[in-house]
C-alpha cells in the first residue's frame, strides 16, 4: 500500500481560489467549519459521498482529488502496491465511520466512473446515511454487509452486487462487525 492522498490541500486550494470561507463549504456539505478545517489539514478524511458534494460544489470531478499526473493518459494500470488509502473517514458529527477506502484509479483524469475498494471494519453506533448525485455499483468481495437504502435494509454476501441511484439515502455496514471488502464504482 502506498502513501495517502493529499486531498485536504486540494480542497483548500479550490476554496481559496474562489475566496470562500470554511463556513461556505460547511454549509454545502453539512459538515461543521471545524471538521472542514480538519479535512483540509488531512487530519481526517471525508466519506465518498461528501467528496462527491465538494467536487460538485467546486465544479470538478471526484477524480480531481486523487489525480497526481497533470497530463491526460488514455489508460492506466494501478498495481496492488500502488493503491492509496483514505483512512480516518468521519461523519458530520466527527465520529469514525468504521470504514476506509482506496482509489483504484488516480492517474486517469476526466473519468466517468470512480472505482474504490472499501473496507468496512466495525459496527458503528451512528448509522447516518448519505445521498449525492450520480449512480453507484457495489460488489461484495468478502464478508457479509448490510446495505441501508432509504428505509430498507438488505443483507449482501460475498458475490452479491447492487446498482442504485446515489440520490437514495444509503449506507453500507458490516452485518456482524467483521471486515467487509467491497468494490464500489461511483459515477456522476
From TrEMBL:
GO cellular component, one term: cytosol
Coiled coil residues, start to end: none
A molecular-function term among this protein's GO annotations: DNA-binding transcription factor activity
Xref: SUPFAM superfamilies: lambda repressor-like DNA-binding domains, RmlC-like cupins
Cited InterPro entries: Cro/C1-type_HTH, Cupin_2, Lambda_DNA-bd_dom_sf, RmlC-like_jellyroll, RmlC_Cupin_sf, TransReg_Diox_bact_type
Keywords: DNA-binding
Pfam families referenced in this protein's UniProt entry, alphabetically: Cupin_2, HTH_3
HTH cro/C1-type domain span: 11-65
Presence of keyword DNA-binding: yes
SMART domains noted in UniProt: HTH_XRE
Official protein name in the record: Transcriptional regulator, XRE family
Amino acid at each position: 500500500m502506498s502513501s495517502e492522498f493529499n486531498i485536504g490541500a486540494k480542497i483548500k486550494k479550490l476554496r481559496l481560489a474562489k475566496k470562500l470561507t470554511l463556513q461556505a463549504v460547511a454549509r454545502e456539505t453539512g459538515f461543521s467549519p471545524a471538521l472542514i478545517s480538519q479535512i483540509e489539514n488531512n487530519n481526517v478524511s471525508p466519506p465518498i459521498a461528501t467528496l462527491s458534494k465538494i467536487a460538485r460544489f467546486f465544479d470538478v470531478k471526484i477524480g480531481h482529488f486523487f489525480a497526481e499526473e497533470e497530463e491526460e493518459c488514455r489508460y492506466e494500470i494501478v498495481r496492488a502496491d500502488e493503491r492509496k488509502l483514505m483512512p480516518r473517514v468521519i461523519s458530520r458529527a466527527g465520529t469514525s465511520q468504521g470504514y476506509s477506502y482506496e482509489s483504484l484509479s488516480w492517474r486517469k483524469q476526466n473519468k466517468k466512473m470512480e472505482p474504490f475498494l472499501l473496507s468496512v471494519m466495525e459496527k458503528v453506533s451512528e448509522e447516518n446515511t448519505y445521498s449525492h448525485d450520480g449512480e453507484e455499483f457495489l460488489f461484495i468481495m468478502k464478508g457479509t454487509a448490510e446495505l441501508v437504502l432509504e428505509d430498507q435494509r438488505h443483507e449482501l454476501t460475498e458475490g452479491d452486487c447492487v446498482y442504485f441511484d446515489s440520490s437514495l439515502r444509503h449506507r453500507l455496514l458490516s452485518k456482524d462487525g467483521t471486515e467487509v471488502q467491497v468494490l464500489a464504482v461511483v459515477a456522476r
